[in-house]
Amino acid sequence: MTASPDYLVVLFGITAGATGAKLGSDEKELILLLWKVVDLANKKVGQLHEVLVRPDQLELTEDCKEETKIDAESLSSAPQLDQALRQFNQSVSNELNIGVGTSFCLCTDGQLHVRQILHPEASKKNVSLPECFYSFFDLRKEFKKCCPGSPDVDKLDVAAMTECLNFEKNSSASRYGACQVEDMGNIILAMISDPYNHRFSDPERVNYKFESGTCSKMELIDDNTVVRARGLPWQSSDQDIARFFKGLNIAKGGAALCLNAQGRRNGEALVRFVSEEHRDLALQRHKHHMGTRYIEVYKATGEDFLKIAGGTSNEVAQFLSKENQVIVRMRGLPFTATADEVVAFFGQHCPITGGKEGILFVTYPDGRPTGDAFVLFACEEYAQNALRKHKDLLGKRYIELFRSTAAEVQQVLNRFSSAPLIPLPTPPIIPVLPQQFVPPANIRDCVRLRGLPYAATIEDILDFLGEFSTDIRTHGVHMVLNHQSPFVFILPPRAQGRPSGDAFIQMKSADRAFMAAQKCHKKTMKDRYVEVFQCSAEEMNFVLMGGTLNRNGLSPPPCLSPPSYTFPAPAAVIPPEAAIYQPSVLLNPRALQPSTAYYPAGTQLFMNYTAYYPRKEYSLLHQSCSTAPQVRPIVLATSLQLLILAVSLHSLARWSECRAWPTILELRKFLTSSKVTSMQPRMDLYTQMTRPGLYPKNGFVFKGPSS
């Protein structure tokens, strides 16, 4: 809309929670809608209208009750949101007597009333908003254009604008909201009159729908426009993300779902918005809900987004050049599958866009097929028909089908195209736990906790297990971390990656593990339900080393590596504050030259970085540590782990022709020295846990690899 509208409809919304700058940030529902029509041509203001809106939860905060004078009883008989919007639409149409050529536009005090209240709530309740709610004037921005000497937009509100115009304070309207609407009408009349003669011509826009698209790795992306969303349901798509951020404008192709090392979605997404203003509004939706799950929203960078969504392949760009297509991912294809067989698999009820040209097979750099492919469909109906063929047979193999995105196509192609051409032998799986703590494989005396909050601690787990916390073995709690660095053996826990939401508990007996799984399954921890399954120590070891454990059985750790790792040159590998526990040879290591290399079977390493001691053990060691409570827990490596690391570093140094790295002979000599042998009694460090009454009096927390 470039021409000035004939009318402005001043709109003001009130929720059951916060007001002002925090409006909509607490996810509270709309309870009152107020509006007034302003005739721009005749410079007249109409009457004030208001309608109560009944929320699903009749719970009002004390501040809301005090400011609005509204109680739950009056809301119980009010119309719901869809009925209130129909009343608004009918009232505006009757008052304006809209005919051919008559135009109007909404005007609000800031962005929050439309972007953070009406659109998100209507999306959650599946209410279709009238077209007039997709464009509006932000009175604060318009006032700043009209009066450049006024305060910044983020400091402007109705009170500040009336003060700039030297208006007398309005005391006629007592209810909160009515006074603001009255003042906004007077401000608009002053702006369109002499000496300002302001013209309302460029309204704010709200995107009708999310547009998919491609992103080049060479594209420049503003760091202030990207957020990371965590905790997404596994089956969520880019359209679900756009629905969660409804009201905010996501850039074209700006929703990128992240994949884990196995190529499956990991519950995270990077979202790119059109401006910093929309990014800041998105951050206010931190811990808002998608269904029953709350979503965490954090700042991210343009580099993070490009790593996920960026691509350089012309083949991918050509495949994704067809806009408004629904993408479906095929997984598990026979290596001999052809495009004709894929077209025949879907049949006539779900034709592929462009026939064979709408199919993209994923291959390794040497041309070998991976068993994955992406297929384009012209509409949602065809895509739904295609997804109904999930696990149908193609030849002798069943095919998995998933709704996909353009960013996922880029990620999968980037992952496989960067795999080394020469297959490297898979290293043997070395148990993460020392053998003295690993029971026989046929005894299912462990439980697996899945879906833990990312902020869960050992104490939260013990609270969750309740009576079964007394049945935990020594070294029995193992938190699973996502891989961040290849040097997980000797880095502190903070550097080893983010929590994965999984944990393993070793119980005293299989019977107690069974009872714990039965009674604690799907109990809640910090507003999240946690799944509890009985398992064996062998299954636990597989997952701790990067394998997968699901209803289909055990899958070994993956053999594919991520594109590359870059190792910075640290000042010291082992924390200097832990020097008292380390031989002097490691305190001043040589500087490591940065290098890049492929690590087979290293796509996702896991470390159990915490274990719980349910009773007092090793009293002599406890006494030596209790005298120095200020010493921070450290992470030390076993001799076997250091030897494995030495072999890897030596091979990497030879590959990169780096002469400054320690040789294998030097490290072997150090590992067999008396200093390492004398360190063995000091490999564990304990700190006493101060939670009297809840857990055993002499409980301990262990941090570091179980050694």
Automatic annotation (TrEMBL):
<dbReference type="GO" id="GO:0005634">
    <property type="term" value="C:nucleus"/>
</dbReference>
<dbReference type="GO" id="GO:0043484">
    <property type="term" value="P:regulation of RNA splicing"/>
</dbReference>
<dbReference type="InterPro" id="IPR035979">
    <property type="entry name" value="RBD_domain_sf"/>
</dbReference>
<comment type="function">
    <text>mRNA splicing factor that regulates the formation of epithelial cell-specific isoforms. Specifically regulates the expression of FGFR2-IIIb, an epithelial cell-specific isoform of FGFR2. Also regulates the splicing of CD44, CTNND1, ENAH, 3 transcripts that undergo changes in splicing during the epithelial-to-mesenchymal transition (EMT). Acts by directly binding specific sequences in mRNAs. Binds the GU-rich sequence motifs in the ISE/ISS-3, a cis-element regulatory region present in the mRNA of FGFR2.</text>
</comment>
<protein>
    <recommendedName>
        <fullName>Epithelial splicing regulatory protein 1</fullName>
    </recommendedName>
</protein>
<dbReference type="InterPro" id="IPR034427">
    <property type="entry name" value="ESRP1_RRM1"/>
</dbReference>
<keyword id="KW-0539">Nucleus</keyword>
<feature type="domain" description="RRM">
    <location>
        <begin position="225"/>
        <end position="302"/>
    </location>
</feature>
<dbReference type="InterPro" id="IPR000504">
    <property type="entry name" value="RRM_dom"/>
</dbReference>
<dbReference type="InterPro" id="IPR012337">
    <property type="entry name" value="RNaseH-like_sf"/>
</dbReference>
<dbReference type="InterPro" id="IPR012677">
    <property type="entry name" value="Nucleotide-bd_a/b_plait_sf"/>
</dbReference>
<dbReference type="InterPro" id="IPR036397">
    <property type="entry name" value="RNaseH_sf"/>
</dbReference>
<dbReference type="InterPro" id="IPR050666">
    <property type="entry name" value="ESRP"/>
</dbReference>
<keyword id="KW-0694">RNA-binding</keyword>
<comment type="similarity">
    <text>Belongs to the ESRP family.</text>
</comment>
<dbReference type="GO" id="GO:0003723">
    <property type="term" value="F:RNA binding"/>
</dbReference>
<feature type="domain" description="RRM">
    <location>
        <begin position="326"/>
        <end position="406"/>
    </location>
</feature>
<keyword id="KW-0507">mRNA processing</keyword>
<dbReference type="GO" id="GO:0008380">
    <property type="term" value="P:RNA splicing"/>
</dbReference>
<dbReference type="GO" id="GO:0006397">
    <property type="term" value="P:mRNA processing"/>
</dbReference>
<keyword id="KW-0508">mRNA splicing</keyword>
<keyword id="KW-0677">Repeat</keyword>
